[in-house]
Structure formats: C-alpha cells, structure tokens
Amino acid sequence: MPRTRSGTQAERRKGVGQKQRLQQKGGFGIASRNPFTPGASAVYQEFFGFKEKPFNVTPDPRFIYFSDQHIEALNHVLYGIRERKGFIAIIGEVGAGKTTLCRTLLSRLDNQTTKTAYIFNPDLSGQQLIRTILEDLGLDATGRTKKDLLDTLNAFLMEQLAQNHNVVVIIDEAQGLGKRELEEVRLLSNLETETDKLLQIVLVGQPELAAILDDPEIRQLKQRIAVRYHLDPLHKSEVRKYIDHRMSVAGCMEPPHFTEGALEVISKFSKGVPRMINLACDRTLLNAFVWETREISEAIAQRAVDEIEGKKFPSLLGMEKLTLEHY
Description:
By secondary structure, the protein is of the alpha/beta class. The protein has 14 helices and seven strands.
C-alpha cells in the first residue's frame, strides 16, 4: 500500500499520523484526551485535521447547508423583497436554521440598493422597536414622540424609493412580540404609496408565531402577509449530506467517517434539527478523539447522545483500554 507523509491510508483512518504529530508537540496524552480539559477541543480539531470547529451552534452563514427547502425558503424571501410584497413570514422549529437563513439573506442582498435593519431582540415596546429600526438603518432616533420617529422613517423611505432602492426590516424571534407590538409593526406597513410598499418586513419565528398570527384580534396583520414559508427539519436522507458539508467547510481534507449506525443514532436524537445535529456531532467527535479513532461507530455516537441527555457513565479515560464493543 502506498505511503504518504501522514502514513498509510489505514493509519490515517485510525488517526495514527495525527497522534504522532501531537505527541511530538507534547500536546497529546491522558490530560489532553480528557474532553473536559481546557484546550481539548482545539486538540480534537488538529487530530481530525479541521481548520475550525465544524459543528458550532452559532449561526454562521458560511456553514449553511442548502437543503431543497432552505433554497426554497430563501427564494421565497428574496421574491417577497424584490417584488415589494410588504409582509413575509418564515416559521420553523427551534434550531431549524432560521437565524442562519436570516444572516445568509443579509449577505445576499445588495447593500448599495437595499437598506436593512436586523432586529434580533424583539422584546421591546412599540416605540422602542421603531427607535431600534431607525438606529439599525443609521438614522437619527432621538425623536421624542412616536410621530417624530415615524416622520424620520417615512422621509428616509421616500428618499430610498426615489433612488429605486428598497428597505427591509428583519425581525428574528418574532414570536416574542406581543399583540400590541405586532399591531405597531402592522402600522409600519401603512408607509406606502399608491403603487409601492415602502418597507418590506420579514417576520421570522418559531411555530408559536403561526398561532399568534391566527388570533382573530390581529387578523389584519395576517391578511397582509403576502409570502409565508414553514421551514421543516432536515429529512433523514439529508443528515449525512449536512454533516459532510460542515466538515468540508471546516477545511478537513480527509474527514472522519460516520458509519450508518452512527448516522441513525444522530438522526433519531436530532429529529433532523440542525442545531441538535451539531450538538451530537461535536460531542461524538470529541469522544472519538478520546478513543483515538477516525471511524465514528454507532457506539461512539450513542455514548455522545447519552451524555448530552445527562446519563451517567464511567469515565472515558477509565475505559480507554476497552474495545468499543464493550460500551
């Protein structure tokens, strides 16, 4: 079998090359293989050859995996904005990738012709919400009354329309808005001409948002939502593609191999929710590092899931002489 600088293909699969390099640096051993030791995650990155963590739970748009429905959701929003539809709603479960989709949307919009405000903490009163929108658009938000604030916003919107520009307000976690605040948001859509909506408002939230919008008391808002999309969890068949995609973006040339059994465990635990897939995979790779293997078995994945769920087990370090079949 041909050899490379990292050893044979079999050695690379077992992590031999990485282990030897870490030993030479003094960075490998019982202490560093303790997953709770400070810096252990950095060593696990080097062990597997990642340039950065592949399964962070932060919404980094560089890592977004475009499933068919993520592409469809993004296209729905872009269509609603470009056609000046006014209100757009994107609804999905916790961890389904809504915030990452929002940040991807912001990166796709031309900031020369589309001005945006991104509200990620909607726990505000109606006037505070308007003030925050003005601040995010870079406008003077010192007006003392709501009328002052709305006049400032309206003047800006008319100015942008004259230049054929668009203005978009994205409200993330919109299920946190009360009925009074949602009514304030609806009134913002009254800033319009006879032919154009001056302000495009994207409401992004959990399924509770759908229930709120169904309330008869705010039916006027629901009637104004021209584009609506429900973002579902990933299908089971997409979980491997999602995992492989994130490992590739993290810069790993020869990523660890997740067996079918491991994928089954992760799919069942996560129910296809990206954030939960990330949690399971991050813990699984940490355990695989402790066991010095690049082959991610069902046993390793199950151990990781059980740990996330709070089950108690003997120390991994105390089990290091056992084969994985003993788990």
